[in-house]
Amino acid sequence: xxxxxxxxxxxxxxxxxxxxxxxxxxxxxxxxxxxxxxxxxxxxxxxxxxxxxxxxxxxxxxxxxxxxxxxxxxxxxxxxxxxxxxxxxxxxxxxxxxxxxxxxxxxxxxxxxxxxxxxxxxxxxxxxxxxxxxxxxxxxxxxxxxxxxxxxxxxxxxxxxxxxxxxxxxxxxxxxxxxxxxxxxxxxxxxxxxxxxxxxxxxxxxxxxxxxxxxxxxxxxxxxxxxxxxxxxxxxxxxxxxxxxxxxxxxxxxxxxxxxxxxxxxxxxxxxxxxxxxxxxxxxxxxxxxxxxxxxxx
Length: 298
Prior knowledge:
α1 (2-9) packs across α10 (207-218), α4 packs across α12 (246-256) and α9 packs across α13. The protein folds into two domains: 2-69 and 170-293, Periplasmic binding protein-like II (D-Maltodextrin-Binding Protein, domain 2), CATH 3.40.190; 73-166, 3-Layer(aba) Sandwich (D-Maltodextrin-Binding Protein, domain 2), CATH 3.40.190. β4 (90-93), α5 and β5 form a beta-alpha-beta unit. The strands form two sheets. A five-stranded mixed sheet has the order 5-4-6-3-7, sandwiched between helices. A three-stranded antiparallel sheet has the order 1-8-2. Helices cover 47% and strands 12% of the residues. It has 14 helices and eight strands. The chain is of the alpha/beta class.
């Protein structure tokens, strides 16, 4: 999402002597595989989506988390006005085993609905494919994140629930590297992390630039939706310094164990490498950036 895009478009990577090529792939699995094979040096991805694969032994470690929580919203066909009315209907989910699917199941259970008994869960794939399935009438609901929820409402669909209200700990937009890069190129990791931290603070301080950048990358012209996304990601959910929340990672692990109880990796500390951010903070860079851009530590 936006820290990566802003770092590229605002020239922040160049200022940190980094020549960065951005690539995009849908789904945590393909991204983690590319990271593990060394096709990628770094990965920006939803932490909750990557943790199940990391529990299976995937070669990835958290080095930062920019957004904590679960920003997903449940959107449905216009004729549905409450979760109870999903009974007998279909909901699109992503790929089997991913954490956002588990959140949908918890949402249904909290409202007295049994997944795949009262509501049929249909594996569709990424968010764009799920939303297109809703628009095409293949399913009656799905979960999306901003700005898609706002676009959906503008197109006549109804938002009936904010997944954050479940109170389930979440780890959202995070930064990962593999163990080889961490061990063999520690200064590169620190410079990349410093650039991303600056980009996040820059994005909050430069609203119009960030909204335009998000629109360009998302190929979205809905200014209301983009403004809503900026409010969520560049203000309300943004956490700087971007420390990885051990408790949040462990909570996702514990929840995922209900689906995969034999996963070999089940300790959050085994997935987190705090050293690079600690080094960047010790240099005084983070304090200088937060002061320059007027960002309160949180």
